Amino acid sequence: MIPAPSDVSAVPSDATVTDSGLAYKVISGDVDGDRPGPADKVTVHYSGWTSSDGERFDSSVERGSPTSFGLNQVIKGWTEGLQLLTAGQTGRFWIPGDLAYGNDAGGGRPSGMLVFDVELISFVAAPKPPPIPEDVAGIPADATVSASGLGFKELIAGQGTEHPQKNATVTVHYTGWMANGQMFDSSVMRDETIEFPLDQVIPGWTEGVQLMVKGQTARLWIPSEMAYGDEGGGGRPTGNLVFDVQLVDFNVPPAPPEVPADVAAAPADATVTASGLAYKVLTAGKGTDKPGATSTVTVHYSGWTAATGDLFDSSVVRDETISFGLNQVIPGWTEGLQTMVVGEKKRFWIPGNLAYGDEPQSARPYGLLVFDVELFSFR
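The structure corresponding to this sequence follows.
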């Protein structure tokens, strides 16, 4: 246990008090040297006590492991205080409640004035904010404009000719500005790329990134109706937005399976059970053991609506198998999977009463559904 400082209960006369109410003094270390900025990433050793009773509530020293964080990611007293130290210095900080967790903190956090001894081991300067584009206010004449109103301009050429498709997962670096030049988000400033499915973001991103090739950097002018609208809400930016996007990488997902020729109805060579479930073998499996009604199975599958032939779900497209208990799914799956052996692939025609019903409900498919299912294992 690290004992509390002798001056833990009150700010001593030899401490310096800043305009915010933060008090500090340097305990050890060289006064010369650079100091971190408000967004720099620091590595520190520290111990903290509550001023009211001298109780130690946290210590990286006792854990034997220093900690690293961005100075814009912590309490105000730390953000301000660490900027007063040079690398190698140790300082003591008296941080009033309004610069810490408050005077009546909850969630197990310490309340009131806190006292910290902090050794600034090192720091890394934060990336500089990208400059505001000169053409942030409107699409320039040398940009390409699509039928949707999206503006596109190449900034740095990429490699190859392959573009990500709508269902691809992409990895990008980006910075975004509103039309008034205010930067609202930047993976560049966080110094970390971001990965996401291209069909799960704003329409302007979905369309724009599909125009890019790997390694390319482009500027996108996204009209409000393809972004977050003109009203905003939830802290999201409003109006037309401008993004500089670097396409670092993307995957090429498996092609969606073809619609079965017999998707509309079970063919004459299908087996029909007493419940109305129909099936036929597409690929033979191995052995004779079959899962039971409560077994957990691992499968690949694709599902279509019989009425329209629309693919509504597919683990094949996601390129990942799925596991579940047979007593946790629609009756058609519970019954059908019990007819299979490992390695077998079957096509099932499942009537609405054994699936999600015959009438539209929520976003679930309805009526007769057709599934191709491959059983990998069960237990």
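The chain has three domains: 16-124, 144-250, 271-378.
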